[in-house]
Amino acid sequence: MAARLALDALAWILTDDIRAERFLALTGLTPDRLRTQVGDAGTQAAILGFLEAYQPDLTACAAALEVDPARLVAARMVLES
To answer: Domains of the chain: which residue ranges?
Structure first.
């Protein structure tokens, strides 16, 4: 479930070019690296951590995914353990 939330969150992040560019810049990921590592728990945790670091994105993504923002935070914690 945590991995699925991370992938859904990534899809949401990528719907906005400016947000997607900020995501890549802040995480240090490149598009190629993201493609090859999207299945890794660390990359998935970074996706959710990116959202968690900016409350407006966290709440907007949670609303779009119809989940409580706390579920995204909890999913990051699961992926990091």
So the answer is: 2-80
